[in-house]
Write a structure and sequence with these properties.
The chain has 299 residues and is of the alpha/beta class. It is built from ten helices and eleven strands. Pfam families: HTH_1 (PF00126), LysR_substrate (PF03466).
């Protein structure tokens, strides 16, 4: 028997969310209905697609093989709908964007707000998490990363470079003394990432500078930035974040300047989805302009 498309959609949602309840919320149906659709699909295919456990639903080998085909079919369907709706229409529907919290807090709010302003029928969701997103499980429609992934069926394009510097609040420096040389850092309280929670080697800023001890640490760059702003110590700060903190100034600019890049990462199956491609272009252009504008304010 040929599978029902609604059953395949339920399968795809469970594969992405790894639970019936989460898949039900995504599909706007109750978990029991999702479960029945998955069971019917397994019966029609005479295959076990998931391993059930208290931790959730995990794909079996048969499920993994089916997933790539169903995800590709969904992408083709979205591409077809985009073609029918026409390229001249405004963007609509929901797009979920994953991003590290530095970009999510200091760049994406204004960039995405401007895109939605020009496209009133569009809904943008920003998922700010300090980790790498799994686009294969459709955790997001696209993601911004700080290094290009080397594996997976992904479309990767560089958005822009950005700069970072050591920084501290003027109040902290007044209380603890000026920093005129790299050696002076040994006498100051340092702020940075929790060492074993650095999810990308590009974020090991203090390690690159030879700093051994971090007194105040967080896996969130926004928490680190607020510690710096509130006089907690010295940390590495994105230049594009500095305009919102006039009481923070860069240190040792002539000796230490870090450069990193943002990359836009998409699933290869979405290449022909016009709506996502148009949003990706607008997003990349907006982030590029915003980084340049904010960094110019700190020069």
């Amino acid at each position: 028997m040929e599978p029902n498309w609604d059953d395949l959609r339920a399968f795809l949602a469970v594969a992405e969310e790894e639970s019936l309840s989460a898949a039900g919320r995504k599909l706007l149906m109750d978990a029991a209905t999702v479960g029945r659709r998955v069971q019917r699909l397994e019966r029609d295919l005479a295959a076990v697609l998931f391993t059930r456990s208290p931790q959730g639903y995990a794909l079996t080998g048969e499920g993994q093989r089916l997933l790539s085909h169903v995800a590709r079919a969904e992408s083709e369907m979205r591409a077809g709908l985009d073609a029918v709706e026409g390229q001249g229409a405004g963007l609509s529907g929901q797009i979920r964007l994953g991003a590290p919290d530095g970009a999510a807090n200091f760049l994406l709010p204004q960039v995405c707000a401007a895109i939605v302003e020009a496209n009133p029928d569009l809904e943008v969701q920003i998922v700010a998490l300090p980790r790498v997103f799994n686009l294969s499980k459709r955790e997001a429609d696209m993601a911004i990363g700080v290094s290009p992934p080397s594996a997976g069926r992904l479309l990767v394009s560089k958005i822009t470079d950005y700069r970072l510097h050591l920084a501290a609040s003027t109040e902290y420096l007044r209380r603890h003394g000026a920093v005129r040389a790299l050696e002076d850092l040994k006498g100051h309280r340092m702020i940075g990432y929790i060492p074993d929670m650095i999810f990308d080697r590009e974020l090991d800023y203090l390690g690159e500078l030879g700093v051994q001890r971090v007194a105040l640490a967080s896996n969130s760059v926004s928490v680190q930035f607020n510690w710096v702003r509130q006089g907690g110590g010295i940390g590495v700060v994105h230049d594009f974040a500095l305009p919102v903190a006039p009481g923070v100034r860069k240190l040792l600019e002539d000796k230490i300047s870090l450069s990193r890049a943002f990359y836009l990462i998409r699933h290869e199956d979405d290449r022909r989805v016009e709506r996502l491609s148009r949003f990706a272009t607008l997003l990349s252009e907006g982030v590029r302009r915003e980084v340049a504008r904010l960094e110019a304010l700190t020069s």
